Every structure is written in structure tokens, then in C-alpha cells.
Amino acid sequence: MTLSLTLDSTARSACVRIAGDLDYGHTDELLDAVSGVLADDADVAAVHLDFTDLTFCDSVGLSALLQVRRLTSNAGARLQLDNRPAHLDRILELTGVLDYLTADPQASPDSEETEIG
Q1: pLDDT-derived band of residue 45, with 50, 70 and 90 as boundaries?
Q2: Is 53 in contact with 17 (CB distance < 8 Å)?
Q3: Residue 95: CA count within 13 A, CB half-sphere
Q4: Are the CB atoms for 29 and 63 separated by under 8 Å?
């Protein structure tokens, strides 16, 4: 299956709806979409990834989510992972990255440390 992205934005937030497979060969589309949103509008405070129609996510897809987190954090925007299916939650929990992906980028380093791994 392929990946389909739909982008909606408001003055302070953007939502990328992800449908299909987030896997090898399709992750650049997501990274380009998020990079574009952040480059086009410096006032974006939150980027929402809506996984309602996600059908599959492999290790390359997981890597892309980590890269999206890095992009949003560097831009000072919060990353929201909305409507996560059970199979995505399982991957995020097993790999120990759920808390990292959803942490507030404005939080002080002393407030809470998140261990990945």
C-alpha cells in the first residue's frame, strides 16, 4: 500500500493526516511535509500527526517519527500523535519512545528525563 498525506493548518498549528503504510520508501513524504510546514510558518506552535488511517509502520517509519520530533523540537513546536492505532502504540511502547515523542519541547531538562531504549 502507499502513503497518503493530507495537510490542514491554522494560524498556530498544523495537522498531517497519515493514511496507509509509513514504511521504507514512503517516509520522505512525511519528513518533507513537516519540514515544509515548519519552514513556511515560524509561528506554528503544534504539529499534529493524525494516525486514524495508518495501516502499518516499520522501523524506518519509526525513525521518521523520531526525525519529525527532532524537527518540531528544534522549531519550538509541540508534536502531538493523535488517534494512534494499537499497533503503533505497541511499537512506540516496546521501543521506549512514546514519552520522548510526546514530551513538551519547552520543558526544562531537569523537569523529567526520558530514557530511550
Answers
A1: very high
A2: yes
A3: 19
A4: no
Taking each helix axis from N to C terminus, what angle separates 27-40 and 59-74, rounded to the nearest 10 degrees? 10
Classify residue 77 by its DSSP letter.
Answer: P
Per-residue pLDDT reduced to its tens digit, 60-100: 999 999 999 999 999 999 999 999 999 999 999 999 999 99
> What number of other Cβ atoms are within 10 A of residue 30's Cβ?
20
Q: What one-letter code names the amino acid at 76?
A: G
- Say if CB 9 and CB 41 are below 8 A apart: yes
- Which domains does the chain show, CATH number per domain? 3-102 (3.30.750.24)
Q: What is the CA radius of gyration of the chain?
A: 14
Query: How far is the C-alpha of 69 from the C-alpha of 1, rounded, in Å?
Result: 25
d(CA 63, CA 110): 26
Residue 83 Ramachandran class (φ > 0 left, ψ -120 to 50 alpha, else beta): left
